[in-house]
Design a protein that fits this description.
Blueprint: H1 3-14, E1 19-23, H2 27-39, E2 47-50, H3 52-67, E3 70-71, H4 74-90, H5 104-119, H6 135-154, E4 157-158, H7 160-171, E5 180-185, H8 192-202, E6 206-209, H9 221-233, H10 280-294, H11 311-323, H12 339-352, H13 357-365
Parallel strand pairs: 1-2, 1-5, 3-4, 5-6
């Protein structure tokens, strides 16, 4: 059993009736942790899984409703920044970014920069153009940020960094209940504003949940810095320094020595971890499905982790359709696989080919209309 599950099992048993708020990166991960605890026969009464954004929404929700402000999505904020970029360019207020077109890549790059600044708790008034290598670039970044802030205020909108800032303000008036404990993974990357919110909402009722070590690989400095800041807040942090290294009980648990194979314990050969090679993504997906079918694995117990992009989900969709396997996708499917997407592609294809009757007939016969 890994460190995270064993710690949670012990902690839930020792604090059975105490309310425990476990802050996780996603609800999906929280659901998986709950399933593992249940499958191992451990009770997790009063253990609730939340994300930091949802906790901020809960903290500042009443204030947002009172002010008549609603939260803006990432896609909507990108669209808003795109309009700001185009307007500033048309008005001739850009010098450094003057030659750039308002493409999705450019807007996304600027959006990432502005988002990082806001997640660090910085506003346009906090920045100085002198801090940038190129002063005119700094001036325009500050201008983008200022216009973005003004547009949010004008439309009565709030983005995620703004939500955290408001939640921090409201959390100052929250009385910390000693009977409520907040748990957080010890190896987690948090921005400056997220750390501040966690400090305000949890106070000293914070417990860091240990995770399995990775041998032969140094932790990024940002992990250590955040861990030290959060650990300084809590008197209930479990000390994971020193002591004997945990002994693995399966080949899967030997994965902790992936970057230090010379020091790894001997293999168990229990088939909990197997490697295979295949030529191309299609053959990789086929082999995975072959193994699932041949070993009669329950699909509810199978999770496939793949590189970013639509390649693997698309392949699994096509192959699972042929084998009648019921597969779900955490990030959804590409639009082209859905009925509305097929209709859209069919209509555009029909128009691009001078409205040929054959293309329209093919669209109607497809059964998606």
């Amino acid at each position: 059993m890994n460190s995270l599950i064993s710690f949670l099992a012990e902690y839930c048993k020792a604090h059975l009736l105490q309310e425990k708020i476990f802050i996780v990166p996603s609800y999906q991960l929280g659901h998986q942790i709950g399933e593992v605890l249940t499958s191992k026969g451990h009770s997790w009464v009063n253990l609730h899984f939340v994300t930091l954004p949802s906790l901020a929404q809960e903290t500042a929700g009443v204030e947002l409703s009172t002010r008549g402000v609603r939260q803006i999505s990432k896609a909507a904020s990108l669209f808003m920044l795109d309009n700001i970029f185009r307007n500033l360019k048309e008005e001739g207020k850009l010098d450094y970014f003057r030659e750039l077109e308002a493409s999705s890549g450019v807007v996304k790059a600027i959006h990432r920069s502005l988002f990082a600044l806001r997640m660090a708790g910085l506003e346009s008034k906090d920045l100085s153009a002198e801090s940038f290598i190129k002063k005119n670039k700094g001036e325009e970044v500050i201008l983008f940020l200022k216009k973005y802030e003004e547009e949010l205020k004008r439309r009565k909108l709030i983005d995620l960094p703004g939500l955290y800032s408001l939640a921090i303000e409201k959390a100052k008036n929250i009385h910390h209940d000693e009977k409520k404990t907040y748990l957080c993974l010890q190896d987690v990357t948090l921005s400056r504003i997220e750390v501040e919110f966690l400090k305000k909402i949890a106070g000293e009722n914070l417990v860091l949940v240990p995770q399995d070590p990775v041998y032969g690989l140094k932790k990024p400095r940002r992990f250590l810095k955040i861990k030290e800041e959060i650990a300084a807040l809590s008197s209930k942090v479990r000390n994971d320094k020193g002591g004997p290294k945990p002994e693995p009980s399966s080949d899967l648990e030997r994965a902790a020595w992936l970057f230090s194979p010379k020091d790894a314990p001997p293999p168990f050969k229990d088939k909990t971890l197997e490697l295979f090679s295949a030529i191309g993504p299609t053959n990789e997906c086929r082999e995975i499905l072959r193994r699932i079918i041949s070993e009669n694995l329950l699909l509810d117990n199978v999770e496939i982790i793949h590189p970013a992009g639509d390649t693997y989900p698309s392949l699994f969709y096509v192959l699972s359709s042929k084998t009648n396997l019921k597969v779900t996708y955490a990030e959804g499917l590409a639009l082209g696989f859905t009925s509305p997407g097929k209709v859209f592609n069919g209509l555009t294809d029909w128009m691009e080919n001078n409205f040929l009757v054959s293309h329209l007939c093919r669209l109607i016969e497809g059964g998606n209309l």
